Each structure stands twice: as structure tokens, then as C-alpha cells.
Amino acid sequence: MIGQRAWHNAIRSDDKPAQSPAMKPDDIVVVNGLGLALQKQKILDQGLATFGKVLTIEPNAVEVRYNRGNTLGALHRFDEALAASRMPLHSSRRLARCNER
Fold first, then answer.
1. N or C: the chain end with fewer CB closer than 10 Å?
2. 57: closest CA among 22, 31, 77, 81?
3. CA distance readout (Å), 53 to 21, 32, 49, 67
4. Domain of residue 16, residue span
5. Are residues 84 and 48 in contact, defined by beta-carbon separation less than 8 angstroms?
6. Which has the closest alpha carbon to 41: 80, 81, 1, 9?
């Protein structure tokens, strides 16, 4: 699994992390990590889009919804952040399995 540090390094070096050979576009843990790295680098619009991509794969991913809400808040889109936090959050078995590794 690619950690946040790898994403930070890729972003800092102007690489295209989404095209990395190790990137699995449907691996929600990896894509969520990319979103977090973008968020920490203050590349908020891209981070938000990345979290949205994960939610198209796994709509009930609790951690991703949380991260998306934080990013919306950082963008001062408070109404959307509040609405996102009120959506029903069901545990994501797929994400939970990945986190157990």
C-alpha cells in the first residue's frame, strides 16, 4: 500500500501520482490517501475531486465522507460540509478490510 508520504513526495516533485504504476484507480484506500495528501498540501479542489471519485466506487466509505467534509470546510463551503456530515454513514466493509492489513 502506498502511504501518504509517497503521495506528498510525488506531489512535491510535480509527478503525476494518479498515473503511477503502483496506483490502483479502484483501490479506495490508495485513492483516499491521495486525497489526504492533496488536502495536506492545500490542493483542496483536487483533493475534493479525489474524495468524490472514491465515493463513486464506495458510497458508504465513512472515512472518505469525513475527509470530504473536512475539505469542504477548508474551502469555506460550510453548508455542503454540514450536509455531507448528515448523510447516513454505513460502515464500509471494503475499507475496513483494507485497514486490517
1. C
2. 31
3. 19, 9, 6, 13
4. 4-100
5. no
6. 9
Q: Where are the beta strands (DSSP E) in the chain?
A: none
The pTM of this model reads 0.65
Q: What is the pLDDT along the chain (101 residues), one digit of tens a residue?
A: 345 555 555 555 444 544 444 556 678 888 999 999 999 999 999 999 999 999 998 888 888 999 999 999 999 999 999 888 776 544 445 555 555 55
Dig out the grid coordinates for 30 from the structure: 490508495
Burial 7-44 (b: 16+ CB within 10 A, else e): bbebbeeeeebeeeeebeeebbbbbbbbbbbbbeeeeb
Of 8, 66, 60, 62, the C-alpha closest to 33 is 8
27 phi and psi angles, rounded to 5 deg: -85, 100
DSSP-derived letter for residue 59 is T
Q: Read off the C-alpha cell for 82.
A: 454540514
Domain CATH code at residue 61:
1.25.40.10
